[in-house]
Amino acid sequence: MYPPANSGTLTPVEAGQSEEKQKRDELEHLFDLDDDEVLKAENPWMRTAPVELFSAKNAGADDLAGDSPRQFMLFYRHFFPAKPYFEWLNYDTLNAGTSIATSPSRSFMNREFSFILTNETFMRYQSFKNMEDFKNELARLCPTRIDLGAVYNIRPKDKNMVRAGALVAVSKEMVFDIDMTDYDEIRTCCSGGDVCIKCWEFMTVAMKVIDAALRDDFGFKHLLWVYSGRRGVHCWVGDERARVMTNEQRKAIVSYLEVIKGGTNQVRKVNLPNTLHPSLRIISEHFKNLVFSSQDILTTPESWEKILAIIPDEAVRAKVREDWEDAPGRAPSQKWENLKNIIGQNIDTPKKRQQLENIPRDIIFQYTYPRLDDKVSVDIRHLLKSPFCIHPKTGRVCVPIPIETCENFDPASAPTVPRLVRELNEYDANHPGTEDRSKLQGTMKEVEFEIFINVQPYNWQKTSLREHVEVFEKFVKGIQRDIRAKKRDDASRSVDF
Ligand SMILES: [Zn+2]
């Protein structure tokens, strides 16, 4: 089911059509479809120009447009927030937050990384000894995509040195993947790979609802929301309790959260118990704006028919349709009130009550409730694109989104490498005396460098990446607080005995 452990080429020149398709199917199982274009050789954004070394200082932002190999290289060398990233995946607190190199833990060393390279080579089961090893490989390979897999019982790199089946996944963050393509049947402004600020509201609702449920209903505390770089969001739950869950436990959480179910042919997809679901408050707030205004569902028969189709009683459906057609120009909010009234007037038997009573609520759910890509969540070995990748099609960095202000996030404004380079050059021009950290490495004694470097800002701190890395750092620090508390508890318990 999974591609081989070592690197292989995605689209072999001589491979037959069926073999290629089979490979694609395997890959689509492993990756979210959001990024299927990564795998296409004809992607115009991916130039295969020879890669040279550039410093961010000398790179003109304008020259960079369309030169993706250079963009990846500049990003990994100058902007990738390696330290907090390493501290996240390390899940330990030894030397954390100091300039002393943090000792790598098994969580880091046994973590599977997967890379896709510019030439479309796909490398699974990569693992690294420490942060330097990881950083060096990033700078050397410049992957167009980084995915994170599980933490295994042994180093994934050593997979081929042990007997088959000896590599066992032991932990991974609980993850969620929400993709705008799953909203194509209900959104009217865009389709396919496109998103705009109007349909992005579906993602805002999704983040709010899933975040609230994970915190309130499951008690998780450490949640990171990340823009997927194009048309979706990912959530990483870093609580220890979440990381050690079995696939069955992950499945149970997903089915609790999955209210919208059924294929495209099933008209009514909501399958709610009669008791009120706690997310109704959040989605009701957004329903009006989405359906009445930004998606404009109730203005033309073409789109309002989809809403009418959810009403199971044919006679009632016809009455609402007739009513709306009677004065199609009235405000959407008025049409919605009319629908609710007509349904209410037609509840005259217990059977009708059971059939119709919750229809308005179910319409609200169907048009606003998050649609999860569940295969990503329920298999601990499933790969998910890492935060701080660059989406090869849009050139946008996959940045963390603060949940408190998620409605202000505009995907079109996510940082791109040309913009980061421009911002860095502007900052340095306005702040003489700050130096490019990466250029100073090796120019002075290590001790001097450590002292010097501690007062120098990181390049990401000089750019619009800063606010996103700070969201990430807050997430990492929260996890570290819990780890410290647990260590204290363990220590005091051992003293007690
Ligand atoms: Zn749109």
UniProtKB/TrEMBL annotation:
Q: Which InterPro entries would you find in this protein's record?
A: DNA_primase_S (IPR002755), DNA_primase_ssu_euk/arc (IPR014052)
Family statement: Belongs to the eukaryotic-type primase small subunit family.
Protein name (database record)? DNA primase
Query: According to the lineage, what is the superkingdom?
Result: Eukaryota
Kindly state which keywords UniProt assigns to this record, in alphabetical order: DNA replication, DNA-directed RNA polymerase, Metal-binding, Nucleotidyltransferase, Primosome, Transcription, Transferase, Zinc
Q: What class of enzyme is it?
A: transferase
Q: According to the UniProt record, where is the region Disordered?
A: 1-24
> Which GO molecular function annotations are given, in alphabetical order?
DNA-directed RNA polymerase activity; metal ion binding
Look up keyword Nucleotidyltransferase and say if it applies: yes
User: Biological process (GO) annotations?
Assistant: DNA replication, synthesis of primer
Give a Gene Ontology cellular component term annotated to this protein.
Answer: alpha DNA polymerase:primase complex
**E.C. designation(s):** 2.7.7.-
> Which ranges are annotated Polar residues under compositional bias?
1-10
Question: Which Pfam families is this protein grouped with?
Answer: DNA_primase_S (PF01896)
